Backbone:
């Protein structure tokens, strides 16, 4: 085995995932683990899943037959049932099923299960298939007093989808993961990696060569943002000034808090899914202003006209009455200008990354920066929910580090400050 394959083979988790690029031996790893599990008991039934029937018929079944033959395990393949029955003592059987119709995952109980390319399904289908698979994975084979029912996944990362959310973003203790890059496999042809680089764009290469979760949606709004490269463990120090970018939305307000270090912005906290402006003002006051931090708020300029609570007083007036310093323009900057300002801070043409994000303290802001894409009209998408935190942070970042010069007369961004 390669090093990542061996690491995965030894994972103790109930739900391990082998997330890997092309040519890393995902299928080989799945076969090895499935046969290992079958050798626990001759009564064990090992379930193996592929996205489609063609993959079962053309890849999984022939590879299983070849593997069993090489190991000297006697078997009979029932093609109508898609079950491989073994007759070698101490080895269980294998049932092969598809993921394209999760409703058909019924009628049997498995001891262990192995799922191939789960992330190629859309999120809803993957979620349904996963629930069906783990529900069926409850067999207690004879001779196993304390059976450890386990479901293993083997997949190429397909953006921020089901596998990312289950195994990377916020994994529960039962979920463990090994990520493998294509270069970890020494048995590939010498020109294999280079041939892929010639045919795939950079974003896809990150996923399909390095096994990394990246935004695969065409036209990412912040394509150079990296939770690793833009990360900083910066925290808010006692009595340090806090700069808060604020986006108004009924029942879904967002605020991103920044400090300025060496003339560069560092995101250090966030408040998201807040009900309305009075609630947001009270939270900022309680958590920061009352603790000795001078707070400057950089809100959506539209807040001077309406209130998120529907009251006669404007959102900006509510913030002013709370004692915050308010900095905003008479109108919002053009979306394109705001996005360009943020992208210049994410990574400029000199290779400098000035925007820093404490990804542990700002998980929503981090996800949104990674995942927001352009819609069909060429505007930053607002249907996925990834816009609120980005808009909030962008108001502050564009105000302090605008791409357009303030001395320009036509279409200039004219700020004002109130207390």
Residues:
């Amino acid at each position: 085995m390669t090093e990542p394959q061996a690491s995965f083979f030894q994972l103790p988790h109930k739900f391990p995932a082998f997330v890997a690029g092309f040519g890393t031996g995902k299928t080989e790893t799945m076969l090895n683990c499935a046969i290992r599990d079958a050798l626990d008991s001759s009564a064990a039934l090992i379930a193996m899943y592929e996205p489609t029937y063609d993959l079962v018929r053309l890849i999984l079944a022939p590879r299983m037959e070849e593997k069993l033959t090489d190991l000297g395990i006697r078997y009979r393949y029932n093609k109508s049932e898609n079950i491989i029955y073994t007759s070698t003592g101490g080895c269980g059987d294998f049932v092969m099923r598809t993921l394209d119709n999760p409703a058909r995952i019924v009628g049997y109980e498995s001891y262990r299960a192995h799922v191939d390319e789960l992330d190629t399904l859309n999120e809803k289908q993957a979620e349904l298939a996963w629930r069906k698979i783990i529900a069926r994975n409850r067999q207690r084979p004879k001779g196993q007093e304390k059976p450890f029912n386990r479901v293993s996944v083997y997949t190429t990362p397909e953006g921020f989808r089901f596998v990312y959310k289950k195994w990377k973003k916020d994994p529960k203790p039962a979920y463990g993961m090994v990520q493998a890059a294509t270069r970890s496999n020494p048995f590939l042809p010498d020109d294999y990696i280079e041939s892929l680089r010639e045919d795939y764009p950079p974003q896809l290469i990150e996923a399909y060569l390095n096994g990394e979760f990246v935004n695969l949606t065409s036209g990412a709004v912040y394509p150079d943002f990296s939770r690793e490269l833009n990360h900083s463990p910066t925290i808010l120090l006692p009595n340090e000034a806090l700069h808060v970018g604020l986006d108004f939305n009924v029942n879904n307000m967002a605020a991103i808090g920044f400090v300025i270090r060496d003339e560069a912005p560092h995101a250090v906290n966030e408040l998201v899914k807040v009900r309305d402006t009075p609630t947001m003002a009270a939270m900022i006051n309680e958590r920061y202003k009352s603790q000795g931090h001078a707070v400057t708020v950089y809100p959506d300029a539209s807040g001077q006209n309406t209130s998120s609570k529907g009251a006669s007083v404007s959102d900006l007036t509510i913030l002013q009455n709370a004692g915050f310093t308010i900095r905003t323009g008479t109108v919002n900057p053009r979306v394109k200008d705001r996005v360009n300002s943020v992208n210049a801070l994410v990574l400029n043409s000199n290779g400098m990354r000035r925007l820093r994000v404490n990804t542990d303290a700002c998980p929503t802001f981090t996800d949104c920066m990674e995942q927001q894409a352009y819609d069909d009209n060429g505007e930053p998408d607002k249907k996925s929910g990834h816009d609120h935190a980005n808009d909030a942070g962008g108001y502050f970042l564009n105000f302090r580090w605008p791409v357009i010069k303030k001395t320009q007369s036509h279409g200039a961004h004219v700020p004002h400050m109130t207390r």
Notes: The chain has two domains: 3-208, 242-418. The domain at 242-418 is CATH 3.30.420.280 (Nucleotidyltransferase; domain 5). The first helix runs from residue 3 to 9. The radius of gyration is 27 Å.
